[in-house]
Amino acid sequence: MTTVAAGGAGSGGAFSIVAVLADEITGSATLSGIAAAGMTTGAALTAVPLAKLMARSGRRVGLRSGYLLALAGSLLMLLATVVDMYALVLVGMAAVGTGSACGLAARFAVVDLAPPAERARTIGLLVGATTVGAIAGPTLATGPFTAVASALGLEELAGPFIFAAVVFSLAAVVLDRGLRPDPLLVARRLGDGADAARGRGSLARSIGIIARLPPARLATVAMMVGQGVMVATMVMAPLHMTDGDQGLRVIGFVISTHIVGMYALAPLVGWATGRIGPTPMIILGGVISFGGAEIAAHTPPHVAWGMFAGMFAVGLGWNCCLVAGTALFTAAVPTGDRVPVQGAADLLMSASGGIGGIAGGAVVAWQDFQFLSHYSGLFGAVLAGVALLAYLGNTPGVSRRSSRI
Question: Are 241 and 297 in contact (CB under 8 A)?
């Protein structure tokens, strides 16, 4: 939990300003969206390799390697602010995305030894632990660390990447020293069948398992939609606000509020998921994502309060989809296949976010932020409808006739 908090701070700090940096270098909203989507693209590209590394060597080795790669990415981003090179922004942000992938993988690590009845609550606690770092990250990165950058003779935009380098280093050290014993290796010693995943973790096979299991399929779609709506709206929110002459500090506060929605209520969401079941929570997540995106869609660029409310709700919708989707997914996938299939699910989720970010920049260049936010939110409404039909029907493992998780 401590490591995820530090890693969330680094990811949030770097993400908070990458679109502004890319826009300063290129002057293109489309290229800014692509750069901001680099974090989710990097998370997607590394999700399966990290899962394979963890399946082979344990959670500690895999997560530590991911945070070290994120550290290297933050240093590349820092270099990009000095030489004004867009290619470094793309590569660096993709590497920073590995830190995001580690945070996602950790929610599966935390239930390696959790009793089935406690999975949703435990996932909620872990996601909630990200709150402190994720809230403080954008605020510190766009506040005190801009002063640090200036003191070092760098431009203010370098501050968030100095901050990211510091906290990713901290995350790697704390994880290496603290995650002992390794939960996945302990689970194997207890003989829960996790060893069966070794040698059978091809991506095609993992995606096939997801496709064959209705609860895993719904869970993965929920996580993809939550991620896609969140990223598509959030990567363009800073540029939308700068169009209204709002400063970096206000933008940082909006992103921090968004991250409060993403993480702070996760323990409550986990508890509620355990009480009412994951499918109703997925329905709620889709509705909230839609509502938040609609609020943002009707907010002019010079108005801050609408962005605060809309981005908070989009974050909360993502929270519901992630926690409930993870609980439903973990219960549905056989133990022996769980580690590689988890990697495939995170790949699909991160890819959805990457597509959302890239499309977001193109849509804003074509139309405007309001258009983007409105049509992104419609995916949340569709998710809520699909999940409701599954819940009211006879879908195995999904409907209200199924046992609660």
Answer: no
